[in-house]
Amino acid sequence: MSGAEAPPRRALDVRTRNLGGELFVARGTDAFQLSGVAGTAWRLMDGRRTLPEIAEEIATATGAGADVVLADLEALVEDLRRRGIVAGA
Amino acid sequence: MPSAPERPATAGAALAAAHPVTLEALEGLGRIPDDTRCVFVGGSLVRGLGNARSDVDVYVVTGEQPPAWDADFDRVALTPDTVPIAIEHVDGRRWDIEYWTTGQLEQLLELVQPAVLEQHQPAGPDVLRPGYVLLDRLLDADVLSGEAWLAPVRAQLEASAFGALLITQALEVCDHYYEDALGQLEDGDGLSAVLSAHRAFSAVVDALLVGYGRRSIGTSKWQARMMAAADPRELPFEEYWPRITMRDLDRDDPRDWVSAVLAECQRLQIEIDVLA
Predict the structure, then answer these.
(1) Measured at the alpha carbon of residue B69, what is the angle toward residues B133 and B40, in degrees to the nearest 5?
(2) 8 Å CB contact of A43 and B270
(3) CA–CA distance, B66 with A9 (Å, rounded to integer)
(4) Which of A10, A14, A15, A22 has the highest number of chain B CBs within 10 A, making it the mutation to test binding with B?
(5) Segments of chain B scoring below 70 in pLDDT
(6) B263/A10 CB distance under 8 A
(7) Percentage of chain A exceeding pLDDT 70
């Protein structure tokens, strides 16, 4: 995956609940929790920020290396895209 | 229970001018039973939202249920399953006086304990609406009599999951219309999708407002004023107003508007902490 690809955005047919800061998403009968960085990334996938920009924001907030965060996010987005809950990217 | 940063005072002279009801007036009308524990006024007038045509909502809590005063009552999924209502017209304004028993109030408080959030389908406003309205108004009540009796009840309610339950139910309403809008959009029925998306948006705003101490049960008629007063950081009034009034809707091509509104619903679902 390349950072030059379309910014990831949440698929419209996905519902989210925020329970005490923990995010739970559901699409059809498929439901799961997005914890920690995955939840933060989910918040930022607004279809405007590119994946490198999201990685940069998270790296700045957590003090982790941007390259490491980006690599993790690429894997996460690929998984979410395969589940149909992320469009673009 | 979400905090209410701008909640009105609960009693005192500041509220006396907001509505004309006094304990003496109610006693003079013969509307206060002997075993009354508490009398309070709630609703739009107490919250500073009412107008000259608004009814006054009076609540009387008694040990035993009095007779159905004027053969008028609400149904509620409690025991007993009726709430007698007396109606008076005083100086051109209607007073609705509801009679709740201490037992009904105890049952209601049980139904809003945190454990209900774990139920797949908690009992909702359809069968409990009058009771939810009672609890809602109790939180902002102008107490005319029985403050000492009511104080621990209110404390119990403030520590309950009532707010989380209202948020959950509003989000479920949002989900319902959201799904409709998606299906209608996919079917090319853009006009219907507009109305469904609008209702989904209104519902998610209701959920958002609960977190700001501004609850509405079964009605959104005060939503704009509540949003103007709360001006939530998650959705400032200046962003809310064009959406709710459909200012940027292109009737001939509503697809973009519907998609944008649904995306906004989705963003707000992320922001609204059900448990806050």
Answers:
(1) 40
(2) yes
(3) 58
(4) A15
(5) 1-17, 68-71, 120-126
(6) yes
(7) 92
Pairing of strands B93-101, A9-10: unpaired
* Distance separating alpha carbons of residues A68 and B203, to the nearest angstrom: 40
Centre a 10 Å sphere on the Cβ of residue B240 and count the other Cβ atoms it contains: 21
Question: So what's the pLDDT on residue B120?
Answer: 54
* Interatomic CA distance for residues A5 and A78, integer angstroms: 12
E-state strands within chain B? 36-42, 56-62, 73-75, 82-90, 93-101, 142-145
Could you give the CA distance from residue B165 to residue B117 in angstroms, rounded to a whole number? 7
Phi (first) and psi of residue A72, to 5 degrees: -65, -40
Dump pLDDT digits (tens) for B44-102: 888 888 888 889 999 999 999 987 666 688 899 999 999 999 999 998 899 999 999 99
Dist CA B41 CA B19 (whole Å): 8
B 172-201 residues with CB < 8 A to A: 175, 178, 182
Give this complex's ipTM: 0.89
